[in-house]
């Protein structure tokens, strides 16, 4: 059940609600990558709606219906279990199930993705379920304009709903569970112009993950519960457009994300027991969320170690209710680059102590790089332990980078292992 109005104040993203499928007039960086007359941002919307193709009345499979549909058309799917991986390259389609729980795409743990949209602008997927895929339930790659509404994705091998290198889109009224990465993902976009609203994520490694997702990204009015971690915008060198910046996280109910039994890859475990983590991001706003019941931190701003050590900077944490956290309700990890600030939050504990005095929004002190080494040590140790098992030949470089803040603080952490 999504959080009530009393629990999570409604924050409206009015423009984004109306605009995800209206193609913008200005090209983005994603558009510039592709040549030719087709591709993201180049395809013109059809002058008139396309025809309707019904499954199985007009086409025996979803893939056959998608291939037969014209731009602007509607693929309408009757209830049934469809064992197929659908690839969409026709722009401006709407793919809609007649029964969200009755129209099921089944991967059988052998097919890659449920529905994958590649360089086809303005494709909307609605009212159906994807499960048991090796990769992701629903995917959009390198598109201008996307929407996933009233979707269910569960027990897939990577992500539930995944938008990569894409702009002007939204996920809404959808559910994701049982994914070893994240339930919802928006990544490598600048600007993203993307909205995630009225969704529920549970029993994933991470509820929402957004690697290098920057510029007009809004994660609002949703519930994130019983994952390893709740909402984690993050910076990594493995994708373009680092660092992550300029996201709004508002009006969410984030609670009880301590689920060590959720499916997870090794490098997700460091975030266990945290509600909202800005991981190496900059200039984000975290406001008017209810965050409660976490074993470690409620809201934390922490550096992200990768090929570079990405420090947080310029983030604002305002007017949240944060409670019942095991280590601290609010945390700012050191080192940071300065400019992170906290104000107006209802909370009981923080690292460093007196965080709204030391890093109060509007105070000159907030501009000074600082934070708590204690807040960073636990996640860093868990990250390095996971990297030891996962990173192979790249481990020594990552460990050297990650250990620098500990060495500067007079504490060196040494791991032994094969």
Word description of this protein:
With 418 residues, this protein is mainly beta. The protein has six helices and 33 strands. The strands form three sheets. It has a 20-stranded parallel beta sheet that branches. Strands 4-7-9-11-14-17-20-23-26-31-33 form an eleven-stranded parallel beta sheet. A hairpin with a 3-residue loop joins strand 27 (304-305) and strand 28. Helix 5 (373-390) packs antiparallel against helix 6 (395-408). It is elongated. The termini are far apart. Residues 1-36 and 402-418 have low confidence and may be disordered.
Query: How many individual helices?
Result: 6
Q: If you average the pLDDT, what whole number results?
A: 86
The number of E-state strands comes to: 33
Instruction: Give me the secondary-structure category.
Output: mainly beta
Helix content: 10-25%
Profile the largest sheet.
Answer: 20 strands, parallel
Flag low-confidence runs.
Answer: 1-36, 402-418
What is the rounded Rg?
A: 21 Å
Shape: elongated
Topology of helices and strands:
Elements lengths: L13 H5 L10 H4 L19 E4 L6 H7 L5 E4 L2 E3 L3 E3 L5 E4 L5 E4 L8 E4 L4 E9 L6 E4 L2 E11 L6 E4 L2 E6 L2 E3 L4 E6 L6 E4 L2 E3 L3 E6 L5 E4 L2 E3 L3 E6 L12 E4 L2 E3 L18 E6 L5 E3 L2 E5 L2 E6 L1 E2 L3 E2 L5 E3 L2 E5 L2 E5 L8 E3 L6 E2 L3 H4 L14 H18 L4 H14 L10
Parallel strand pairs: 1-2, 2-5, 3-6, 4-7, 5-8, 6-8, 7-9, 8-10, 9-11, 10-12, 10-13, 11-14, 12-15, 13-16, 14-17, 15-18, 16-19, 17-20, 18-21, 19-22, 20-23, 21-24, 22-25, 23-26, 24-29, 25-30, 26-31, 29-32, 31-33
Antiparallel strand pairs: 27-28
Helix pairs in contact: 5-6
